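Please check these two lines:
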Amino acid sequence: MRIVCFYIGSPVINNPKLDILLDALHGIVNELERAQKLHPDWPKDLIHQVAIQAEESGEALQAALNHVYHTGSIDEVEKELIQAGAMVIRCLINLKK
């Protein structure tokens, strides 16, 4: 999957915010592709789709709590946020309008 992004309102060249955004999107897209291969069967109903996304968000929250109040790593927070983001995208891709 290839991402082309135009960050409106900011110069594209030498923009550290754009680099951070593209790195985050790259991680999310890679995780989405990994998850689709690992779990090709996605629930048909919206409730179960969003429940999966909510579970991933809960894991991100737990990682953040562990980082702030215990000895959890920021890398674990990033990993869980990427997984949560991938599930948001998967829900959106499968959203029936």
Remarks:
- The chain has three helices and no strands.
